Automatic annotation (TrEMBL):
This is Transcriptional regulator. Pfam families: GyrI-like. It comes from Robiginitalea biformata (strain ATCC BAA-864 / DSM 15991 / KCTC 12146 / HTCC2501). Coiled coil: none annotated. Residues 1-157 form the AraC effector-binding domain.
Length: 166
């Protein structure tokens, strides 16, 4: 069962790249991003954010593993002041999220996401909203270790309400 949270507007600094499930370049994205984190003067804490921006809610209704989305490797910042030029800016807008704790390897997360979208969401009082999805990787995140933990943030809104138009 997730916890439901309202995320305040959150500023991120990072790198975003278009990719697909089949053309997954997550490893390369993080390898490019991690050395740059030392150059971010306004970084807040040690958490890492893996953000997915999908081209609309229909992305999940007619899933195609070749369909592109944008993935970000990022960290939260207090401001974008003095940010290195190699990095991009991303705003996570205020909104309601279902937050799920995931334990396992990154390679095994797909069935967990499928259960969220096909089982939990279908039986909940919520529906997907059109905002970024993201994972927060804190101190319990251990990469490919089976005991690794991270929080998966799924944007939701109460059933019967109009969502974000972005």
């Amino acid at each position: 069962m997730p916890r439901i949270e309202t995320l305040p507007e959150t500023l991120l600094a990072g790198l975003g790249r278009e990719m697909s499930v089949i053309g997954n370049r997550t490893r390369e994205l993080w390898q490019e991003f991690m050395p740059l984190t030392r150059k971010i003067p306004t970084r807040q804490g040690g958490d890492l954010y893996s953000v997915e921006i999908y081209p609309g809610l229909d992305y999940f209704k007619a899933f195609d593993p070749k369909r592109p989305f944008v993935k970000w490797a990022a960290v939260p910042v207090q401001s974008w002041q003095d940010m290195p030029g190699e990095l991009d800016k991303l705003v996570l807008p205020t909104g309601l999220y279902a937050v799920f704790r995931y334990k396992g390897t990154p390679q095994a997360v797909a069935p967990f996401y499928r259960r969220i979208l096909e089982e939990w969401l279908a039986s909940s009082v919520y529906q997907l909203d059109n905002r970024p999805h993201f994972a927060v990787m804190g101190p319990e995140y251990k990469g490919n270790h089976p005991e690794s933990e991270e929080d998966l943030w799924i944007p939701v809104r109460p059933n019967g309400t109009m969502g974000s138009i972005s």
